[in-house]
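Task 17 of the worksheet. Students: predict the tertiary structure of the chain below and write it out as structure tokens. Keep your answer in the requested format; marks are given for formatting as well as content.
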Amino acid sequence: MPVSISIDVDELGRLRNCILSQNLKRAQVTNENELLRIKDGQIDMVVYKSGKLVHNGSPASQEIVDFILTRGRTFDYLIGSDEVGKGEWYGPLVVIAAALKPDDIVKFRKIGVRDSKLLSRSEISKLATEIIASGILYKKIILMPEVYNERYLEFKKEGKSLNDLLAWAHATAIKDLMAAISVESKKIKIIIDKFDMEKTDLRLRRANVQTRPNIEVTQSSKGDTELPVSTASILAKYLFEERVDQLNEKFHVDLRNDSPENISKEKLPFVSKTHFKNISKLLT
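Model answer:
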């Protein structure tokens, strides 16, 4: 059965080095979308210009894939942190911090973990189930609408913004996760999908995360392309959708399709984020 993964420019370079070092036989490409073909004994693979690599799943092909996906094992853990729900007027805010070992990176690449924006809801559900079943360490902060609204008001009274709330949630999830890891003897890289560097740095320092010499923290505007962040994002979206289903059932609404105007004022504070303008105007 054909197996498909996405590879980046560095991994393509590693594949080309592998072709040269092992003197693998290349075949003629069959259409303009193909970048290269390899057909040598049990090895049968095609690389497309889109960055997708498709191979036949043989042990020999899999060995090459393992080689090109294996990066320098500089860190014992790579922690990705991401949130879901800040832009939706309904449902909870979900923040996930997930810790991956180098072997997990390779494993998750093979099963199709990638930027969650490229995945359907069914694909997210399938991947999240596999990620959870793998036994990786992760921590979650889930603020259901009622709690989210209370916490948002508390921050607002202190002169703080939504980004302060997000920074608190990310730092808390990361701190809780690191409490489950023996961090003193581990080298760890933390990757956060960037939204407010200054506020996040402050919260991480308060949580005694940013100050440790064995910990590297990166806030990236393209964090969702980093596999640890993609993993956290998939889990966060899965849990967000799960909680939306629970709210729909409990309050007899259809939050994905209903408009706020069609939901009673009594229910809105329990299913929506009340500081959103389209919600607040209905509650005044």
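Marker's comment: The CA atoms of residues 6 and 52 lie 4 Å apart. The two ends are 59 Å apart (CA to CA).
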